[in-house]
Structures are given as structure tokens and as C-alpha cells.
Amino acid sequence: MISFENDYSTGAHPRVLEALAATNLEPAPGYGTDRFCASAAERIRAACADGTADVFFLVGGTQTNAVVISSLLAGYEGVIAADTGHIAVHEAGAIEATGHKAIALPEHDGKLRAAEVEAYLEGFYADANYEHMVFPGMVFIAHPSELGTLYSLAELEELSAVCRRFHIPLYLDGARLSYGLAAPESDVTLPDIARLTDAFYIGGTKCGALCGEAVVFPRGGMPRHFLTHVKQHGALLAKGRLLGVQFDTLFTNGLYGEVGRTAIDAAAELRRILSEAGCTFFRESPTNQQFVILENSQMEALAERIRFSFWERVDDTHAAIRFVTSWSTTAEDLAFLETALAATL
Amino acid sequence: MISFENDYSTGAHPRVLEALAATNLEPAPGYGTDRFCASAAERIRAACADGTADVFFLVGGTQTNAVVISSLLAGYEGVIAADTGHIAVHEAGAIEATGHKAIALPEHDGKLRAAEVEAYLEGFYADANYEHMVFPGMVFIAHPSELGTLYSLAELEELSAVCRRFHIPLYLDGARLSYGLAAPESDVTLPDIARLTDAFYIGGTKCGALCGEAVVFPRGGMPRHFLTHVKQHGALLAKGRLLGVQFDTLFTNGLYGEVGRTAIDAAAELRRILSEAGCTFFRESPTNQQFVILENSQMEALAERIRFSFWERVDDTHAAIRFVTSWSTTAEDLAFLETALAATL
Amino acid sequence: MISFENDYSTGAHPRVLEALAATNLEPAPGYGTDRFCASAAERIRAACADGTADVFFLVGGTQTNAVVISSLLAGYEGVIAADTGHIAVHEAGAIEATGHKAIALPEHDGKLRAAEVEAYLEGFYADANYEHMVFPGMVFIAHPSELGTLYSLAELEELSAVCRRFHIPLYLDGARLSYGLAAPESDVTLPDIARLTDAFYIGGTKCGALCGEAVVFPRGGMPRHFLTHVKQHGALLAKGRLLGVQFDTLFTNGLYGEVGRTAIDAAAELRRILSEAGCTFFRESPTNQQFVILENSQMEALAERIRFSFWERVDDTHAAIRFVTSWSTTAEDLAFLETALAATL
Amino acid sequence: MISFENDYSTGAHPRVLEALAATNLEPAPGYGTDRFCASAAERIRAACADGTADVFFLVGGTQTNAVVISSLLAGYEGVIAADTGHIAVHEAGAIEATGHKAIALPEHDGKLRAAEVEAYLEGFYADANYEHMVFPGMVFIAHPSELGTLYSLAELEELSAVCRRFHIPLYLDGARLSYGLAAPESDVTLPDIARLTDAFYIGGTKCGALCGEAVVFPRGGMPRHFLTHVKQHGALLAKGRLLGVQFDTLFTNGLYGEVGRTAIDAAAELRRILSEAGCTFFRESPTNQQFVILENSQMEALAERIRFSFWERVDDTHAAIRFVTSWSTTAEDLAFLETALAATL
């Protein structure tokens, strides 16, 4: 069945698979010390315009968030996130399992507002009992957010300034970063992110790789003995080459950008199709996730023809659903969807 | 450089890569709910002769040990392991990071002895202060062990009987299980392991896959809400298909056995070469890891021609080193080693 | 300086101190196995009208919450609490430090509403992605709440019914239980609490003891090996007698009730004084904590004459402050306060 | 029954109880910010001859070890201890519950040897795989040790030098410190301990207090936000005055020394009695714990007349038992023991 269910339903971009095949028999040392990882890290540093950035390859998103966040927090600190943040809702308590609280602030289109983060931090230190509370030790954002929205450069600048004023790191979850970078509406570049955050990851799993996320600590900011921390959390891949080869390929000849643009172009066409089919949009999103509201009966009829994600119940008779494009979405997939919508709505 | 450094220095067995390419564009639902995982699990149940076994796919060995052990222990319990056990030494405290103690008992050729485990358990409950101590809540063994040695069927039967007498699970780390199953000296089969343990994993990373370990809970013994536990520990792969396709291939047409036999045959030739070169064996091993003692100067000369692992310092002038074969070891590799040894010893 | 700062600013009720002195030289075995603890537990069982209740003595409130909650939750579970709940705000992340999430629901006068808890639980299991979220594994309430308010018997019955419908424990933090039981407005008794909850504690620290909280698991519900769990969390007192003697005294000749009534009577007089002084009440409270709003300048003037707690900022020129009575509040203290208020407001 | 079972079987030294009674009605702020804690800390700084030492009062020994050790270790670090160390054996995994490994080295009369610690540290950093292992992040010793033995000043100097060479803290568990300081055989003073360690605690629970341990961080070395760390671990006492008053009393007019000397004098008499009764000593101890070997039948007969601790099984027919003196041991107790021994041996 044609699927718009998510951006990880197919395998890897063909050039990634080809690179894995081409390098398969070359012996390489383990745990990320191979030449592929070194090359990928170098290409990522270049793409970030930060020659001093530390780069480390991990396997998946929840793992990356838990490993990075716990490496950057002191025991008495927690992490501020939007109440729709992945770490606050959909990671099964992975942050708490490392002993830290996720401190939820209200979301606005899936995003934190710098002024509200600042007010929280000021209020915390103004509270007479703050020593009996979890210290706000870092700020977590996702770009694109879990709702497909994007921070503007001005918004990122403000968040960064607040974090620096309070001497806490700003961490950006870039699980779908290629789509954020490729969105025409966005004025944020990879060098901007490297300049304004203290840690972030460049998503691979949802952006064309079989698996893998590239963690970047700008300005040589990787925590001491990070490799041991990663190992302790079961996140150190023996065949680090698997990650190195993939990211080396994604950052060669602009493939990471190409992956993003393909999906973003498909998303534009998807928006047109949904709009012309008369769908009400649940949220506006400039990236590869599109959300619309259907009547329950329409949703059920459509589900017999095509795969999508149920997002949330809207009322007794309506639901929000999500369509996602990726590097592997084809014109045929979109045409099929248009036909399916016409037949069911 | 020709490498005998370990069994994870090359990529995947070619048939595994081929299967990944062949299935690459088929959309599949995430998190292990795809048809490849279902098929792989079914094949593994058949290979284990346990139609009721629960099978779950994880990414790496340390991750698997930490996730499975923490899912099976109560908070007040720890895990008994040989003092050479991977979890006791080389996993950077991953077990302790989940809040549990690794209780080390003396190793004998890398193995636990059932009688010593039983004596420990009896002594524990005979101690007037046992409520102030960590309860021994499970037994961890590796097969092959970290030193390449194997439990006999009789030894496994004894350990299993002790665990069942004390109502604690027996868990077997099968990171290199294909080599153990393929060793001619061994009388232990996969159905034996499924029958005698309460949880074990079938190693993929070191046995022909790009990554992946298949956890088996015989007799429907998977802990309640294990998927959430896995997610919480950052170990749930979004593209579960990556693991499903690989294990489905490894358990089709006997590939997992073939991977093991290739390496074991190479190890037999390796032993012959080492022996004829006059090497002293550090430990006897019937599997794909072979340990010899060299003078430091010999070791250094050899290291310029071929890759191997430094194992440990023996005395001021000697060291133990390790050679490892795998599915990708070739006759040419072995011939090269023979020549290199002749040139340096 | 006369203090209405809190209910733990003086030492112990004189009869408690006398009992400690009277038993001081009698040798007793350690860790709660002494005859004082046995007697205290028996008296508490009688007071709860539950002859099968398990009783365990711990030292302080945050400790008790963390130890009890972590003993009752599975790894994949969190605890529901009001967003003003002590565990959600003022315990420095003690719950998260044991690996569990505190799931905050909106407070209503410091309390959870059964209907909202039920809706949360129903919504959780209706969510297609619930396996990727923290399971709601128990419900935490405080009685009196952190704002001094009380659950009615009907409210407790409803919460209990919801918890039983979803097979999760209801846990009640009784740090100030004596004041709740003594409040004339309350229709809730100790046997009610034992009948309707699955675990609760009878506060000692804030109710006349030097230290100590008595945890009650009604109907023999103490988790297996709880003593070891307590020890592991550093909460097992070597001289358990210290807790046993105190609670034995508090539950002899109705002292625990007397402690509560003394403070509640003082609180009634306190309310009269505050009201007649023209204070605006910040919250209505039927127990020993009274909250009023003062202008900042009034607050500062009053602070030079008497001790109270700053509670929270109301606006730029006003603050909420808290006065607390206890067993040691005297008529002279109250008269002094009346004079101080007259002089400053 | 007369008890030599341990040094925490009676209540508090009478002067401690008197001080609690005398200060009982004076209101004091909570959480250790009271004048008693301030005074006690000042007296302890003077006794340590370190005017810059940070002092913090906690409740019990296991709690103190877990809280202090976890505050001083990075996530990737563990703590070296003798394999008889309290944290390695009898604290129910409290260290592991905070995520850290207790790294056991062989004991020699209950003590670590500096040369062996140094060899372990050198070996660790010489191991090619050390990044995959738990970093040795501090050294734990008990003085007196769990077997009643004492470090000499020279031994402490050596251990301190090793720790400083490797930049890791030396932490001393002084649960029974008063007895160590009072032992005539000892050349170690409190200022020596403050000078040579990075953290230690002065035991109260086993040395005359109802409860309480005074943690000392020499040279202003208390970790940042230690109070919040303490709170998070449920170890912050609301009525901190309870600890302040006790330690203020113990360090007034030399009471802490007196408590120690009383027990040490009693232990000398105890040794004479045991020796003259023909007992074989299991271990030589210069402090208040004395260990002898009895035939099982003798042990059982003696147990009907007097309380002592079973220590460990020696062989099928013999056991090691422990007698402990304290500030409350009387000449009558000792005379009773002498008679009881005469009647049973």
C-alpha cells in the first residue's frame, strides 16, 4: 500500500546503500575510529562552518536525546522543553530514566518562546525555595518541531541569547533537519545552528539513512569522556563504519540537501492536493509533515486505500491525521493520493 | 591492511546487503511491526524449536545486555557474572547505570561454575544480614565466553538447574553465538539454549550483520511492556525493518550457520598456522578467537604487517594478543598471516 | 523571634522527648526490629482499623515519597500528581532521580479531580502511541494538600474508584495528616484513608516528632523486600528505635489527635486575627496553614516583628504569605501576632 | 538482656538528650539553616583545624556514603573500595542505585593498600580499552574499617598521595570515627584526616547521637548545589536542628572524644576477658569491635545469656562472632559477660 505514514517507512537513499556495498569488505577499526567516520565528521564540520566542532555518530533519536542531555546536565538539573516536545511526551520517560526532569513550558505551534523561557529562568532564581527545586539546566528545542514548524533565525537568536545569559546550553533536536533546511520559508542555515546552539544533531534515520544521527558539539564542546558515557548508555555502535559511511555519503555532493528538497517539493504538491480536496488544515507546517482534519468516516474510508498517521482526536466525529513526505515519495504516490482523496471525501 | 583484529571490522555478509537492497523501497511500518521482523521472529522460533518464544530485535550488545538485564531484575537485585564477564568489565558500567550491581564470581576459562554459583546463592540466604545486601537476581553467562570458550551441554544443564532451584533467570549473551554453534567441539544447540535459559540473544553484529541482536525470551517469557522499556532506554529502532531484513536473511537457507562455519574453519587453519609458527597459546579456545603470547618486540614487528588485538600484558617482556576470524576471513588473509608470522617471529 | 514560619520550627512534643529519655538506656536491636517499632506499628494498625496493614518507619517526607513511589512503580511507569504536588515541584527531582516521571495534572485548590484523572487514564490508553509514553502507574495526592486544603470523603472515594478501575495504586502523602484529621470541616478518618488508598504515610516531622514518617501499606500490601529497597535508598535508620519510640508515643493516649487539635484550634484563632486585621485570604484553608495577601511594604514591616513564610509573588506590589500553627503555638504567640499586625497594617 | 551486639543499640549520650530538651521550644528555621547547625559546623571546623571546611549534616551512614559519593563522581566514574567495604557489601547496592560501580580491590585487615590502588590506577590507564571501562573516580576507605582496624598516618599519607597523583578524591567513612581517634594505637588525628582526604564524615549514630553524620569537605570543597543534591536523594532533614543540636553537643567540652575513650577502655577490658576465657581472636582490632571464634555449640549457649553479632561461618563447627562496646557499656555489662563466658565456654 502507498504510504504517507512517516519519513522512515522505506530503507535508505539508494546512494547510501551503494556506498555501504562499495565499502563492505574494507576492514575498519571499531567504535567510530574508522576513516569513514573521520571523513563524515570533517564534511559535517565544513557544512557547519565550524572547524572546531566535535562530531559523534549515534544510532537513533531518543537515544541521542537521552545520551546528549544526560551528558550535559548536572545531577540537580533538568531540561526545559515545550510540552509537545518529543522528550516530554513520546520517549517513554527516557530523560527521567537518566535521573533528570523534563520541565515542560507551553508550546506555541510546537515551539518554545524565548521570552517565556527567560521568564521561567528569572522566576526560578527569584523563588526563595529554588534550592528545593530542579534547576533548569538546559533548553531543548526541535527544528523542525514535532508539529513540522520552524524557528526563524530571530527566534533562534533570542533563545540562544537567553541560554547564554543564564549559562545553560541550548540543544537542538534535528531529527528532521534536512526538511527544515530545505524549506523555502526558512532563514536558518546549518552554520546558524552551529553558531547559536551548544549541541544539536543532524538526523539521519528520518532523512535518508538506514539509521543514524550525527551529534555536533560546536566549538569543541563535547563533554569529557563522552565516548564512555555513550558506551555506558548502550549507544556505542561496534561497527561505527555503518554510521560513518552513511553520513559521509549524505554530506557528499549535497545529498543531505537533495533529500530535504525532494521531500519539501513533494510536501508542496501534497498541500496543493489536500487543499484542493477541500481539507481543513489542523496546523500550518512549512515542512514535510502536513496535518489535516477529517471526519471519522472519511478517515476510515481513506485508510483502506493509503497509509497515513492518526494524530489526535479533535472531537467526537473528527480526527487530525498526518501525511509525511520523504526522499522516496514519488509523483505516482502523490497522484495516487489525489485519486484516493477524490474517491473518499 | 589485512585484519584479524575482530569479527566486526568488515560490513555485512553480501547476502544481507543484497536483501537490504532488494527490500529498500517497500514501505513498512516502524518500530519492529513490519513483515520482515515478523518473518525473522518466526524463523528464529523455528530454529529454537520453541513456537512460543518471544523475539525482539535490538541494535548492539551492550545495549541488549543493559536493556534485558534491567527488565528482568527487581530494584533490589543484581546480576551474577564471571569476573571476566563483558558486563562486569567492558561495558563502562552500563548495568550499574540502570541501578543494578554486577556481582562478580571467579571465572574458569571465562566461565562460571554451577557449583560456585550455587554456593554463592546458598551463602547469601544463609547470611544473617542478607537483607542489607544486593539480592542475586539472575545469572549472566556468555557463550562463547569473552575468552572464546564454550559451555558444555552438561554445564549449561547444571547452571540452569541452579537458577531454577533459586527461581532466578539464566541469561545468555550470544554476541558470538554463530561461532559457538558451529564449533565441532560443542554439544550445545540453539534448542538447548532456548530450553535451558530464560533469555538470550543471538548476535548479529559480530556474526554477519551490519548491526543487530535478536533477543529471545523462551516460553513466552518477555517482560510486560518490554517495548516501552526498550524505548525508554533509547534502544527502539525506528526503522525496525533494518533488523528484520537482516535476521530474516541470516535465518534463511542456513546463513547463520554458514557464517559460523566459515569463521570456525578459518580459526582451525589459524590455530595450525600459529602453532606451526611456534606460538604459545595464552588460552585454549574452540571458537573464532585465538589468543597467543608474543614477545613485545615480536608483537610490535607483526603489528606493522597485520592488524590484531592487544589483549593483556603478560609480563615485562611478553603480551597476549588476539586473532579473530569471521565470515569475511579469506584463505588469502590466512596465507598473508602465515607469511607475516614467518617474517617476524 | 515568635515564629509562624512552619510546623517544624520547634523540636518534639514534650511527651515524645520524655519517652525518648525514659527508654534511652534500654538496648534494642537495630533497623526497626525493636519492641518500640513493633508496638507503634500495632497501635497504628488499630488506629487504621486494619489489622493486616504493614507499617514501616522512615525519616522524612521527600525520602518517604521517593522510596514508596519507586517501590510501587514498574520501570516504565510514572506517577500522576497535581501540578502543585510536592513531588512535582519541591522535592528537587527526587522522583526523577529514581527514574520515574511525575505526570502533572492541573490542581484545583491543590487537589486532583477524580474525573480529570480518569479522563487522563482513558485518553492514555486510547492513544495509538501509548507504548511510546510513560505509563501512568499510580496516583499521588497530599492530604492536607500543599495548600492546606482537604479531600472530602466523597472525593477520596471517587479517586480510589478510578485507581481501582485502572489497577493502579492510590498513594496519600500525609505529611500534615494530624491537622487534616483534626479539622472540623473534614469527614475523612484514618480508617477511611486505609480503606481507600494502597499506601500512605502518617507524618511525624510536621506533627510533633523530631523526625519520622510512618508508612502504611493497608491490607498487607508492602512490596516484597521493601526493607532492602529502603536500605538501598539510604533511608533505613540504624537506630530504628528513635522512630519507634516517637510513633509509639504519638499513638498512645491520643497524642497524635491532640497535636492536630491544638494546631487547628490555633489556626481558627489565627484566621480570626487575620480576618479582623483586614487581610485578604489568598486561599481558603481549613487546616494549619493560612495564606493571606499583603502589600510588599506591609510584608516587610511585619517581617521585622515575626517570622512567616513568603509564599509567592502576586503582582508587582503584593505577595502571598503563609502563617502556620503547630502543637507548639501558644496563646501568647497569637496575641503577639495580633499586636504585630495592628502595628504594621 | 545485656547487649554487646553493636554500638547503636542504646539511645543517645545523656548530654545529647539534655541538649535536645533544653533547646526544644526555641523556634529555628529549617533544613540546616539554624544556629545549632552553624555552631556545630564551627566547632567541627575548629576540631579539624580547617577554618575553610564545609560541613553538612546528614542522617545515616549508608545515606551519607551514597549522597557524598554520587555528588563527587562523574557519570562515567566508579569508586574504589576494599572488597569488605561497607559500600561494596552491606549497603544493598546504594552506590549502584545512583548509577555508579563499586570497584572492589582486595582487603588487607579490612583496609586498602596504597600500592595496590596505585597499581590499579596505572593498569587502568595502560589498558588499551580503558574508555570501555568504568573510570576509577575516587577512593573509599573506612576508618576504623568494617573490621575495626585503623590506618596508620603513614598509610593515610600514601593513599592521599596516590589519589592526588591521579586527581581523584579520597573519601573516608568515619561511622565509628570517635573510636578510631580514641584508640591509643592510632597516630591519626582529626586534622590529619581533614588534611589528607577530600571528604569524610564524622559518625554520630554509632558514636553517641540518636542519629546523624557530619560530612566534612575540607578546604571549601563541597560540590556545587550540594543541598539540592541532598534534597533530591531524600536526605535533607526538615528539622535540621535535630542534627545541629546533637553535633554541637558532641563537639562541646570534648564529648566526642569522651564517647570514644569510654568505649575503647571498655574494649580493652573486653579483650582481656575474652583472652582470659581462652577465646581465639578472629581478627586483631584496636577499636571497639572485637571478633572471636567459638564452637557453634558455645555460641548458641552464650546467645542465651547475652547479645552479640554473628559475623561469619568459619567452618562446619565454628563461627566468628563480634562483641561491640560503646559509650553506654558499663563495668557491670563487662562483668556479666565475664560470668556468662565462664559458664558457657
Automatic annotation (TrEMBL), chains A, B, C, D:
Its cofactor is pyridoxal 5'-phosphate. The keyword Transferase does not apply. Gene3D superfamilies: Aspartate Aminotransferase, domain 1 (3.90.1150.10), Type I PLP-dependent aspartate aminotransferase-like (Major domain) (3.40.640.10). Residues 8-294 form the Aromatic amino acid beta-eliminating lyase/threonine aldolase domain. GO terms for biological process: amino acid metabolic process. It comes from the Bacteria. Keywords: Pyridoxal phosphate. SUPFAM superfamilies: PLP-dependent transferases. GO terms for molecular function: lyase activity. Belongs to the threonine aldolase family. PANTHER family: L-THREONINE ALDOLASE-RELATED, LOW SPECIFICITY L-THREONINE ALDOLASE. This is Aromatic amino acid beta-eliminating lyase/threonine aldolase domain-containing protein.
